[in-house]
Design goal:
single chain; alpha+beta; C8orf32 fold; 2 domains; 7-stranded antiparallel β-sheet; 5-stranded antiparallel β-sheet; about 20% helix; disordered N terminus
């Protein structure tokens, strides 16, 4: 039993080291308590921040780190306070996230020595890139620990497809019984720099009009229906090639469009108070660090749960209930970011399963972007919440296996629904006599294609 228990404990410890930042294990003398460290965790955090600030200032505003295969200029995103450690008298460990200009986030391990207020780095190891580990820790016979490469660090992290994906996407709507003339608005996917979209087929009971909103450029298929169309099926089929998205520059962006409030995205008031408290508590400086602090707050404090008024994209509900689906996660983040003066925006579409090549899709999925250091940075906070190992990846990336259907909030079409602007646009909007009614069913499905 003792041998089995020891083996299980070692297996757990090794697994933890693979997916988190952890220092080398304490020596036997340290475990026995024969030496007492003089510094505490706050001293270690101050020491690593001072070191990075000093090196960044000396290198023209970037932190330079290299190894045999990487030569990187980075900017500080956050210090992992949960992994700071005092290894022994005047020996310390720190784990830090730093990002490249292109949006790749590197998890870097530091070993330090010295005293409070006077620490220096003795060893630097690049541990992970976008959540993917380069190495794990292994204990030698003399009880010391060292790094070894991770031989099977797959690119597919819990459903993430990197690089490029290609698939046929089916958007299918079944109409309900109609007792009067009706109007229907369907989102129409468009091509952009990250997705190529071709309409393969369009099955509708009547010919429709393609209309566009003036603010975001979203398109909708506008149909005028009658009772004879009751129970009929509408289907749009797309050929999609999608690229993985990382931080990117965009010309002609009016950032003021992404700083204001909308009916379900309030700014100021308690959102400003919460944002400032988070930023102050995390000692976040610069837009990138501030955004990461707000991202971490939402990841850590909101629970993914489809209950209550979920799915309404209401930041106030998310703030009160601390739960919801992807719309609540990203609405809360956007309200906090805008309240902190960080432009942020919303988009919605569907996530294409990575573990199979065809079949149904579990409804819509949404995500966000924020603006810092002259670029838009993609985030997916609800996925980071569900899969903590991917929290680093989803700060700065959207995988290739998805399709975007629309972007923005408070979307207005002309002609538009009598109920007014759409909070977001993923599912069809059906109107009879000026009142919204649900369609019978909306389904998404796909078939993955072979990439050339």
């Amino acid at each position: 039993m003792t041998i089995l228990r020891t083996a299980l404990l070692f297996s757990f410890f090794a697994t933890t080291l693979l997916w988190s930042c952890q220092p080398a294990a304490p020596t036997e003398d340290q475990a026995a308590g024969t030496a007492q460290p003089k510094a505490d965790i706050a001293d270690v955090e101050a020491g690593i921040r001072a070191y990075i600030d000093r090196e960044t200032g000396a290198n023209g505003g970037v932190f330079h780190v290299e190894n045999d295969s990487l030569d990187l200029d980075l900017k500080l995103v956050r210090v992992h306070t949960e992994y700071l450690s005092v290894l022994g008298p005047n020996e310390f460990f720190a784990c830090v996230d730093l990002a490249t200009e292109s949006g790749d986030v590197y998890d870097v391990d530091f070993f330090l020595d010295g005293e409070p207020g006077d620490m220096d780095v003795t060893r630097t190891d690049i541990h992970k890139r976008n959540g993917r580990p380069f190495y794990t820790w292994k204990r030698a016979e003399d009880n010391t620990w060292h790094t070894v490469p991770v031989a099977q660090a797959s690119n597919e992290l819990l459903g993430v497809l990197r690089g490029k994906d290609a698939f046929i996407f089916h958007y299918t709507v079944k109409l309900p019984e109609l007792d009067a003339p009706a109007k229907l608005w369907l989102p129409v996917a468009q091509a952009d720099r990250f997705q190529e979209v071709d309409m393969l087929a369009q099955k509708t009971p009547v010919e429709g009009d393609l209309i566009e909103d003036d603010r975001y450029g979203n398109q909708a298929l506008y149909l005028k229906l009658s009772p004879k169309h009751s129970g009929e099926t509408i289907q749009l089929d797309y050929q999609v090639t999608r690229l993985e998205k990382s931080a990117y520059r965009e010309d002609d962006t009016n950032l003021e469009d992404y700083l204001g409030a909308t009916p379900l995205l309030p700014i100021g008031g308690r959102f400003d108070s919460i944002a400032q408290t988070i930023i102050t508590d995390r000692e976040a400086e610069g837009e990138l660090m501030k955004a990461r602090a707000l991202y971490d707050y939402v990841v850590d404090n909101v629970r993914y749960a489809k209950q209550g008024k979920y799915g309404t994209a209401d930041a106030n509900f998310a703030c009160d209930a601390k739960s919801g689906n992807c719309t609540e996660f990203h609405s809360l983040f956007i309200s906090l970011a805008r309240s902190a003066g960080i432009p942020a925006r919303f988009a919605v579409g569907a996530a294409i399963p990575a573990n199979r090549n065809d079949g149904g899709i579990n409804g819509y999925h949404c995500w966000a972007e924020f603006y810092a250091d002259g670029k838009w940075w993609p985030v997916d906070i609800s996925e980071a919440n569900k899969y903590s190992d991917l929290a680093t990846y989803y700060f700065g990336h959207h995988p290739a296996n998805r399709i975007e259907l629309s972007k923005g909030r408070n979307i207005q079409f002309d002609p538009g629904p009598a109920s007014g602007a759409l909070s977001f646009f993923a599912y069809p909007v059906l109107e009879v006599n000026g009142e919204d009614i649900p369609v019978a069913k909306t389904t998404f499905s796909f078939e993955r294609q072979t990439l050339n």
